[in-house]
What does this fold into?
Amino acid sequence: MKVAKHLTLLAVLLALLALVACDLGDTKDKEDKDEETKKVTVAETEALDEETTAAHVHSYSAATCTKAGTCECGKTYGDPLGHDFADATCTTPKVCNRCGVAEGQSLSHDYVSATCTAPKTCSRCDLVVGEALGHDFTAANCTNPEICKRCELAQGSALGHDFAEATCTEPETCKVCGATGSAAMGHTYTDDTCIRCGEVDPDSLPVGLEELHLMDSDGYEVMDKVKDSFGNEHENGNVYVYGVYTGGPAGDSAKNERFSLHALSKQYTVFAGTIIARDLTASDAFFKVEIYVDDELKYSIEDFKNTTGAIDFSIDVSGGSSMKIVVTRNYERISAGLALVNAQLYK
It folds into this structure.
């Protein structure tokens, strides 16, 4: 039973193999025929090309910037050359050296400003416009030569100072610019007078009481002018009044005495002046005047009345540290006054 089954399968296989062999034979025959046809077609084409080649030779035009070399039959050779641009200039854009085509814009001029020595000039093409400005010099002065305001070029030399000589109080001074040179010489005093300028030594001049340090006072007053009991005016800048007594009962000593105390500082040798009664003084009033130097009485006058007139005085105050002037009136009148005029201290 098994043998019969195997034989059946073998028979089927053999039949299939026979069919396949038949198909393969047909395919091979077809491929052989196609190959022969192809060979005939190629041969015919080559024969046609040979006939055409024999009839037409390509003639290529020169290549341009944008087009390759081309035969009249339309066949091309190679590639376009491409543009060969020359750089743009101040007045022209980029231009192709072969075909002349332009691209972009001109650069325009790039000017460098004119200077004292060079005109306005294009930095790219050297085009010149106008002229150089020329120098604009300031005038020379004492310390600087002529100098150009634009480029600072110096020309020539400084003029130098023209000094006026120094004086006792002013330094050497340039007449042109006011610059100072050597210092003032200062005064040189001989016999209280400067040997150069003739100025009197201020330390040798007399001074009034108002120029001294006032240490204390009761009723002391500095005035521009005063009239004496005779109607004469005294106006010399050194008028010192010791009160017009207008109050206080008889016997009131606080109202009957006036004084001033001044610092001499051991700088003076003489105190001098004139004593007068003021025009407001009652006819029967009288005064006592005392002058002390360091508490030592140096001068005294009593019973000075409005009819006494002017009395000059001069006292030695050498080495004194302070000076006190005391004016005392009698107790009988409430209207009285005394003044020192032209009162000065001398060194």
Summary: Residues 248-254 have pLDDT under 50 and may be disordered. The two ends are 181 Å apart (CA to CA). The CA atoms of residues 153 and 256 lie 86 Å apart. The helical segments are 2-55.
